[in-house]
Amino acid sequence: MARATSSAPKGPARWKALDKDLKRISLLEQATTFVARPLVAPGIALAFMVLVGAAALGFTGIQAGTFVVVVATVVGAYMALNIGANDVANNMGPAVGANALSLGSALIIAAVFETAGAMLAGGDVVNTIASGIVSPELVQNSNIFVLLMMAALLAAALWLNLATYIGAPVSTTHAVVGGVVGAGVMAAGASSVHWSSMLGITASWVISPVMGGVIAAALLAFIKARILYTDDKLAAARHWLPILIGFMAGTFATYLALKGLSSVTSIGPFTSLLAGIVVGLASWKLSVPVVRRQSTGLENRKKSVRKLFAVPLVCSAALLSFAHGANDVANAVGPLAAIVHAVESGSVGGEVGIPFWVMAIGALGISFGLMLFGPKLIRLVGSEITKLNPMRAYCVALSAALTVIIASWLGLPVSSTHIAVGAIFGVGFYREWYAERQSRALGELQNRKVRPPEERKRRRLVRRSHFITMAAAWVVTVPIAGALAALLFLILQQFMA
């Protein structure tokens, strides 16, 4: 007689249905987390803007125009977030692309130095944005001027937000200046715009990337000739690298004395230059034993020399972040400072004062935007235009820092995006030129034919597609921001005038 068998599952089979259910629940949790993750950064940014608006209520003693100031403050915070998301990538991108800094370390360093630069040295360029583009006296009244500045600020922020979303590192300076011009023409006509100032600003947009590229290429050529292509590379590095470090430190000290300490005490150009020379010489002497110790035990190879540039690269990137904070904070708080001044005084003329809380909002907003939305463009700038190592990235960072410092010294609202990207392309094009020169020399030496154009095109070291895309985005930024600001001015005039 056959033995009856039980219908109940045995062993692991009895848990199969439960495992399937648990797996479905786990997949659902993962999907929920994946969907919710992109909403975390916008949520934090929204909370920041709400807190900024609430803080504006406490900082201002205004009665009649409190609502306008609060709205403008929120828009200024929104603009600052977008500056941090877009522009700051150009400062830390080279260091991250060269693997000298991790992404997390780059974000922290940039946030600290951006805030310091904005708080210590951002005042001069703020006045250029607030009152140097449109003639306040030609605007009908303070209410119209407030709407003009608010429309410009909102238009620039919206365009910059879109550009960041699609991955285009555009100029925030272009955006805000274009917005001011567009809204100014709509509010008071073309005669209200200081076209002579616009001519100087426009010229700086063209000059700055070229200057950044030329300086970066010259630095790379100098390093190659004096260090990289010598017989004893380490000995050459021990001699020249401390000099480069001293030059960088002296430049930073001069700039800090001129721009940062001027809020505490009056320091003339000669004294500032003397302070820079002293700091530069001290840094040179102090870095000699450091570089000697770091180079001990290294092989006489190019790779060893590149390692020695890692720490100077980090320092130069920090310097660039400081300079960027000093220069580009104007894009967020320049129109906001003009709005606060107009509402408080009831007039649109005179020197625009910059309250501490206004500068603080710009500085914090830039830092928050960098931490929340910056990594995408940091990777693009650092690794997708041309291949960078610590030595090349050092040339990019130092060149961009010097150019931004000179521009901020002169009070010109130049685009740090153009400068930094121009420096990266300058390094890349110099590498192409040098490689082509070496190839031709080797071919002539060995009686070989020069490579055909197709082969030379394949061996290019700079991605032309990125150059075309970025140049197109740069060109359309001013007219788009201007047209959007003009439209927003008409809308705001209907609801808030």
TrEMBL record:
Q: Keywords assigned by UniProt? A: Membrane, Phosphate transport, Transmembrane, Transmembrane helix, Transport
* Molecular function per GO: phosphate transmembrane transporter activity
The record's subcellular location field reads: Membrane
Residue ranges of the TM segments: 34-56, 62-81, 93-113, 144-163, 175-195, 201-223, 235-258, 270-288, 308-326, 354-373, 393-412, 467-492
Q: How does it sit in the membrane?
A: Multi-pass membrane protein
Q: Name one GO biological process term.
A: phosphate ion transmembrane transport
Q: Which InterPro entries match?
A: Phos_transporter (IPR001204)
Predominant cellular place of this UniProt entry's protein:
membrane
Instruction: Establish whether keyword ATP-binding is in the entry.
Output: no
- GO terms under cellular component: membrane
Keyword Transmembrane present in the record's keywords: the answer is yes
Q: Which domain of life is it from?
A: Bacteria
The record's section on PANTHER family has: PHOSPHATE TRANSPORTER
Q: Which family does it belong to?
A: Belongs to the inorganic phosphate transporter (PiT) (TC 2.A.20) family.
Name it.
Phosphate transporter
Q: Which organism is it from?
A: Lautropia dentalis
Lineage here is: Bacteria, Pseudomonadati, Pseudomonadota, Betaproteobacteria, Burkholderiales
